[in-house]
Amino acid sequence: MTEGSGIIDATGVTKSWGTTTVFSGLDVSVRSGVTGLLGSNGAGKTTLLGMVLGLHQPTSGHIQVLGENPSVAGPELRQRIGYSPEHHDLPQDMAAQDLVRHVAEVHGLPRRDATTRSSDALWLVGLGEERARPVGTMSTGQRQRVKLAQAIAHDPDLVLLDEPTDGLDPVQRDDMLELIRRIGTEYGIDIVLSSHLLEEVERIADNVVILAGGRTVAAGPIDELRAGGGGLTVDVTENVDAMVAELRRRGIEVAAERLRLRISSETLDSSELACAVRDAAVTTGTPIRRLTSVEQSLEDLFLENIGATS
Amino acid sequence: MTQTTEIYDRGYRAYTGPRGGMGTSMLSVFKASVQRALGLRRKFRFKIVPLATVFIAYVPALGFMTVAVLIPGEIAQEVVADYASYFGLVGIAVTLFTAFVAPELLSSDRRTGMFGLYMASPLQRPHYLLAKGGALLFCMSLVTMLPVFFLLIGYWAAGIGPEGFVTILGIAGRILATGLLLALMFTLIGMAGASLTKRTGFASAGIAMVLIASGVLSDTLANMDSLSESFALANILALPGDLAAVIFDETFERPFDIGRWQVVGAYVLVCTISAAITGWSYRRVEVTK
After folding, report:
1. What is the ipTM of this complex?
2. Which residues of A touch B124 (CB under 8 A)?
3. How far apart (Å, rounded) are the C-alpha atoms in residues A238 and A250?
């Protein structure tokens, strides 16, 4: 995907609340699919979601969502977006179906369609049998599902989920993540999932955006990001010292452990690194038994980028 | 042996039907708010205030209509309330309704996060406030206007009401205008009070206290020899009666020297201040938390 054609594109966005600067030149392009929005508390995840909805204006810079400027086309854009907020407070005495139907109606659906779709959405999230129950009598897990149902009932193009697994036990969290993944992959709805739990983003997201210090410190497909900074592992059958010397001569960091070399570089990506290994092997006449890329965990990636920023 | 059929997956279907604009969104909020204000589809405890309000606003009207029917015309005319004074009686019911229902419509949306969900929809703050205000105005009109219309019909049926189509139309027009203006004022006061906090209890207590305090303080100040009797205009609870007297062109029932334009000015001031407080509060409300 070329730059500027993502579902969310932000360029040079700054945002200040009084004397507090949340973003100082945010550049990000969120692609289609399930995207995890990561950052420590106060990194600006919720503020970014607010800007995507057109509820907060950037102090400077530009943001485009689904090809529209949220500051200008806010109402039209929000009709195409579903939003599940972080809090669990919903009207206690309102039946789940009434709530979901009402939100669908507010998004422009006629009453009859809103009724049908709210029922379908509640079945989809596993609350079909519970749809007539007041929200106040539901568990936290069920309320999270009601929030998800109201976010998708009006058939949005993009769903924003703010901490959707907050307050859930491990089993409920697994179910919720499975559900979100299903919505993002099978139903063709793009999802931006804000979370501070790396493990859950790693499990279900295709892409990730990491915010820190008011900027995007890493963004892109998770597989590429994990492979990018991790380097390579090279197993050779002999000639270790010559190979190590040749690689170091090429400016590549090498750690040797018997016949296994772990190599990395701050300037080369994994494919360039693989080419360098190939050339070094040819130069030194070293037979290579196996070449594998070392994947970083999202946690390593997060800590590395947060560390670099601070 | 019977066979059972189970639905395993209803699937997900894209929606290709029509989508309404801002009007549809506002109408949905309006209808849901009217339902909430009147306690419809809610537990009995939420119906208590609407029922009490109906009782306070409508029962005296029924009483006066009964008197008009049972007692001979000339005596009845001495006993029953006229239209302008009935607006003063309705003030108690409206105060109760304002104090309890406005926070239920506005403060609770902020407490339960519904306001955030509304703002994440096509609605914007002014549309939201218009829809909520419209719902409150509609419900308030049921309290300020309808009982007096009943009174008009009752008096006419008992033979002590106005005679002639044009006269009846004129009185009906004044009832409509007074009822709407009072409903608007109490709607704006209720919205202002409710906009200041997300706690419905605090908002209800605050609104009731402001209304009662305005009555006690203003009358106390107006009764002091050294101060002007115009302080009586600050009595919000008495404004319905005063405004009705202005619209029906009758003398004020309160023993203060106040002018008709002063009453209009006080009405406009109360409405303006209330609207300004609501606008100011809602500009500051945070949405995405």
Report:
1. 0.86
2. 74-75
3. 20
